[in-house]
Structure formats: C-alpha cells, structure tokens
Amino acid sequence: MSTNERLRYLLEQVQRHQATQAEYKELLQFISDDDTGDVAQQLDAFHGIVPNTANQAEEYDHAYWQSVVAQILNADKSLPLVPVKKRVPFLRRYWWAAAAVLAIMAGARYYQTSTKPAPAIVAAPPVKDVAPGGNRAMLTLSDGSQIPLDSAGNGVLAQQGNTRITKLSNGQLAYQSAGTTDKVLYNTMSTPLGGQYKLILPDGTTVWLNAGSSINYPTAFAGSERKVTITGEAYFEVAKNEKMPFFVKANNTTIAVLGTHFNINAYKDEASTNTTLLEGAVKIITPQQQQTLKPGQQARVAAAGQGIQVVDHVDLIQTVAWKDGFFYFNDADIPTVMRQLARWYNVEVTYEGNIPERAFTGEIGRNLTLSQVLKGLAKTRIRYRIENGNRIVIQP
C-alpha cells in the first residue's frame, strides 16, 4: 500500500470512528516525521473527507473533531511534535495542510487571506509551557471576606442573610433563597486571567464569566427589578419574570431584558462594549440613545462615545465560542487573536515593528497548552519570541 493510500485509509478510519489506538499513533507519526512537507500537501489533497466549513458550515461537527483530537493525543502522548519544515503557500486553505501537526491536535481549521509573500520562518526558542485556563474564581462576600472557588469543597460555602451559597458537584455556584429579606447584601464573583466560572443567581438566571471578568449582584432580588454589574465578558441566560425586569450594567451601557440569552463583551482593552442577542429581546440603553435588538443582532457602544451601532447577522458561534470551550476567529487580525490568548493563558503580549496585516479564520480548542497554540501560529507565518517565560513578543 502506498503512502498516499495509507494516509487516506487512516483518515477515513478516524472519520468513521473506527481507528484503533495503533492507527491514531501511526497517523500522528506520519505527520511528526514529515520533514519535507510532502505529507502536509497530501493531507490537503484529502480535504474532501474533512467537512468544507467555508461553504458548508452546517456539516462541520465541532464536538466530533474535538473527540478525535482527544483520542489521538491519548494514543501516545510521548510522540515528538516535529514542525513541518517545508512552507506550503496557500489561500483559504485548511489548517490541516498549513499546520498539520496542530491540526491533528486541535481539530482546528484555518485559512490566511493575506496574499503578501510570507517571510522566512524563524524557529521559536523553547518556552516553559503554560497550561490552559480553567474553572477559577474568587467570591467576595458582603463583609469583604473571600472564598477561592477553585479550591473550595462542594456544599454550602456561606450564608448571606436568608440566602445559602452552595458549590454544586459540577463546580458551579448556586444561590438558594429561603424567603424575603429586609436587607440587600451584595456579592462579587471575579475570574482571574486564565479563569472562567459559571454562576446561578438567586432568581435562577445562569451566568458564565469569561477570563478577567467580574459580576456584582445581590444575594436575593427584591423590589420591582433585578440589577447586576459586570466587567469583562459574560454570557447570560436570564430567568423570565415580567414583573421584575433584569438590568445589566457594563461600562457606559445598560441592557434591559425580561428573559433572554445574550453575550456582553465589555473588556477595557476592546474598542467597544458589544452586546449580542441570541434569543428573546433586549433594549440597549446609553445616556443618549436606546435601541432594541433582535436575535442575531449586535449592539456596539464605543468606549469614547454614547452612540449605538447595530450590526445585523453577526456570527453567533464566534460570539459564544469561549463559553463552549474553543476560540473561534472569523477574519480576525493578529491583535484580536492575541488579546484572547493573553486573557486565557495569563500572558503579556507586546509588538515589535510593523506587524503585517493578516486575517485569520478558524477554531482552536481552549484546552490546548500555550506551546501547542504557538506552534500552530508559527506555521501560519506569525513570528514571535518568548521573554521571561510569560511575555510573547510578536515580530514583523
């Protein structure tokens, strides 16, 4: 059996969920031993068995490919990861061909839209690996005392008035009210860089906090409305209660809802506060303007202004990818990519010289280590070096 035939057989076995551990190991070894780039080109020729997400997004099964990755990695974690040495020019080509090793590891798809000649690749120096982020958060109670949630055991953590705070067996935090309260107490949950957490508010509303974010909220909702304040990024699934509307304050924006699913990105280092509606209806309120959103729309409020820009037909998968466990880039420039990586891996990113304009589309699992992600970026012609173990310098 020729090499081409063997590669096709192995890929088809993976696609059909019929590959043995030995076959996963053999496939990874094929790619690891590819010193000439021939295997990468042959893999590109086989892209027909990989769903064409550029034109048929509905056929792409993210969960399936992530399971493939896990099986391959478990086949033999000791196998060396040897970069593909031959540069393969491409336009809108799958990550499978451009960075074959990381493709197998990440189940990712990638293409580069720049047509400028690629600079010579400079091998990155060895770097102490950085683990991906995880479920990490700090809970600050009304009296100022703090509970590190990632190290706290399951069960009741504290009592705030008539409300009991419980860490559930799945790791998320829940508030259970035992009745009305005369005094309103406030808690704050904050995630560090490299952390995320899930919270169930006293009214049953579910909140996911992304890295470097916080939410301030009452331990029991009373009166005619529910109000919370966030920094960073959060995804809400608001419990419906028409008699008590829900308000979220983020920077210079207030979001008013009755019951809905939406995402708010309010990081200070982003150009605007973006509210994206997935289900239901929300009203965006600034001191100068109000705007009601429909599902699939995004409201952008610039940090320096009060006007609301509404964008139709936004990519909802991209918006909530962080909540679902992966990075998703759609024509993203280098700074956009690196801001997300910096938050999740808790590293500093700096730039040196004129950084070339490139746009990237693809997805990467958030469970990869930093070195795995950087190896993939090196294949896409991003040049970098590591300083002091936690600073990435992007080079022209």
What's the topology here?
Blueprint: H1 3-15, H2 21-32, H3 38-45, H4 62-75, H5 95-98, H6 100-106, E1 110-112, E2 134-135, E3 138-140, E4 146-148, E5 155-160, E6 163-167, E7 173-177, E8 186-190, E9 195-200, E10 206-209, E11 214-218, E12 226-237, E13 246-250, E14 253-257, E15 261-266, E16 272-279, E17 282-285, E18 290-293, E19 298-302, E20 308-311, H7 316-320, E21 326-332, H8 334-345, E22 348-351, E23 360-365, H9 370-379, E24 383-387, E25 391-395
Parallel strand pairs: 2-9, 7-9, 12-13, 22-25
Antiparallel strand pairs: 1-23, 3-4, 3-8, 5-6, 6-7, 8-11, 9-10, 10-12, 11-12, 12-15, 13-14, 14-17, 15-16, 16-19, 17-18, 19-20, 21-23, 24-25
Helix pairs in contact: 1-2, 2-4, 6-9
Q: Helix- and strand-based class?
A: alpha+beta
Oligomer state equals single chain
* Helix residue percentage: 10-25%
Q: What percentage of amino acids are in beta strands?
A: 25-35%
How many helices? The count is: 9
Strand runs, count: 25
Mean pLDDT over the residues: 77
What composes the largest sheet? 19 strands, mixed
Ranges with pLDDT <50 over ≥5 residues? 47-127
The N- and C-terminal alpha carbons lie at a distance of 44 Å
Radius of gyration: 23 Å
Outline type = globular
Your description of this structure?
A hairpin with a 5-residue loop joins strand 9 and strand 10. With 396 residues, the chain is an alpha+beta fold. It has 9 helices and 25 strands. About 20% of the residues have low confidence. It has a 19-stranded mixed beta sheet that branches. The chain has a 3-stranded antiparallel beta sheet with strand order 1-23-21.
